Amino acid sequence: MRTALVIGTGLIGTSAAQALASRGVHVHLADHDPAQARTAAALGAGTDEAPEGPVDLCVVAVPPAHVATTLADAMRRGVARGYLDVASVKGGPRRELEALGLDLSPYIGTHPMSGRERSGPLAATADLFEGRPWVLTPTRDTDTEVLNLALELVALCRAVPVVMDADAHDRAVALVSHMPHLVSSMVAARLEHAEESAVRLCGQGIRDVTRIAGSDPRMWIDILSANPGPVADLLSAVSADLDETVSALRSLQSSDEAKRGEGTTGIQEVLRRGNAGQVRVPGKHGAAPAAYDTVAVLISDQPGELARIFADAGAAGVNVEDVRIEHATGQQAGFVQLLVQPAAAPKLTAALRDRGWAMRQ
What we know:
Number of strands: 11
Distance between the termini: 53 Å
Order of helices and strands: EHEHEHEHEEHEHHHHHHEHEEHE
Structural class: alpha/beta
Strand content: 15-25%
Radius of gyration: 24 Å
Family: Belongs to the prephenate/arogenate dehydrogenase family.
Domain Prephenate/arogenate dehydrogenase: 2-283
Low-confidence stretches: none
EC number: 1.3.1.12
Keywords: Amino-acid biosynthesis, Aromatic amino acid biosynthesis, NAD, Oxidoreductase, Tyrosine biosynthesis
Helix content: 40-55%
GO molecular function: prephenate dehydrogenase (NAD+) activity
Largest sheet: 7 strands, mixed
CATH superfamily of the largest domain: NAD(P)-binding Rossmann-like Domain
CATH architecture of the largest domain: 3-Layer(aba) Sandwich
CATH topology of the largest domain: Rossmann fold
């Protein structure tokens, strides 16, 4: 791949363009808002000048509702040898393209499983996709050359290709992305009118649960409008679980011992099922989640403190597998949780204590 055209210079389009440009591909940028394309160009994502002739690959990075019309226009103009989109749903746009009677051999639907709470070109980064799954949904009609171009794109963005059926993909993202986003938003909505004294007690748990609720509502309306059925089915199942959990909690209020026992059993069951589901979430490098030990260190809110603690861990010969930061409410300090292999935890604890760090037991 030597040339590419990216149509849509939001977070995903600009990030992909930056990754391609940084690896020697000449990237052209287009957007319904020319100012946004100019911003992306200024960030090193390519040029906002139109290509003089057909490019190797056209990447359509627009909301799901506009994918089919944007692709159809690009294909009719013959702007590229191959075409793909990066929308978060795959079945609907393809059926819309089929209804338009287009030859879909030069097209493949794709979806990079990566994003951020922020949107727009200013939120883009060339390493957004590194190590992340990038779903490809080829059909029997997909030209081999186009599949190879898509695989090259994934490789240049340093993502991991995953081949799926389009409708299976849509059911999967409803489960792991779309439904969780709505649930996160529902939990966060409880905070909107909560007492300030309650909100001040927010800890890492509520931050984890509500983090994705900070995303752009307009973007999510586009996404959910393109995949409403599977998301509604999942929320219906969650609703049934909620009803059973509410009933179990009410039973715990009963003066009847047998009723309280039923409530305890009900709560235990939902927590057990939660444990069973959580351990299936892939861990580092997509492998089965590992059981890491946590080394918690008190850290002040000063420049260079995180860099210093990582340097000290490296000097101790310990690889930090993951890291979490727990902020202390109302204080210029917090705890850094360093997740390490169990055998390395005592060594790291001793080394950091020797270097003057305050440890939390």
